[in-house]
């Protein structure tokens, strides 16, 4: 497996990324325009045997904290540490770019991701209910100097 790190919209991988996003998030659409609207978009893609098996997307939040926005792994590939490898690579890249903190939101429905965040040094800093009535957990991590 190899991890590709790209700044901006990964147009050459857009169709497989959209298909994997739909696979992970119950058919949800990920239009290119939504990706194009994110400032300093960072895309990490896990590829194995020329197939996209995982992804991690994020961007600079207006408060200067990097927001790790979306991610997922193909169902049959889960349990192999792919999400952790994507996270480690993302944090390494962010440190090189000078970011001091990374934030992500989690939902109780995705327990494996909640556990992964905690294992990788994130702290729970708050919770809220989004505009769709879903409870969200806010995680933040200070990136090491």
Give the helices and strands, then pairings:
Layout (H helix, E strand, L loop, with lengths): L1 E6 L6 H11 L7 H5 L5 E7 L2 E10 L5 E8 L8 H15 L4 E6 L4 H9 L3 E7 L5 E8 L3
Parallel strand pairs: 4-5
Antiparallel strand pairs: 1-2, 2-3, 3-4, 5-7, 6-7
Organism: Lysinibacillus piscis
Protein name: N-acetyltransferase
Characterize the structure shown:
- The chain has 145 residues and is of the alpha+beta class.
- It has a single domain, classed as Gcn5-related N-acetyltransferase (GNAT) (Aminopeptidase, 3-Layer(aba) Sandwich).
- It is built from four helices and seven strands, in the order βααβββαβαββ.
- The protein has a seven-stranded mixed beta sheet, with helices on both faces.
- It is globular, with a radius of gyration of 14 Å.
- The mean pLDDT is 95.
- It holds the Pfam family Acetyltransf_7.
- Residues 1-144 form the N-acetyltransferase domain.
- This is N-acetyltransferase.
What's a concise summary of this model?
This protein has helices at residues 14-24, 32-36, 82-96, 111-119, and strands at 2-7, 42-48, 51-60, 66-73, 101-106, 123-129, 135-142. It is an alpha+beta fold and 145 residues long. Strand 3 (51-60) and strand 4 form a beta hairpin.
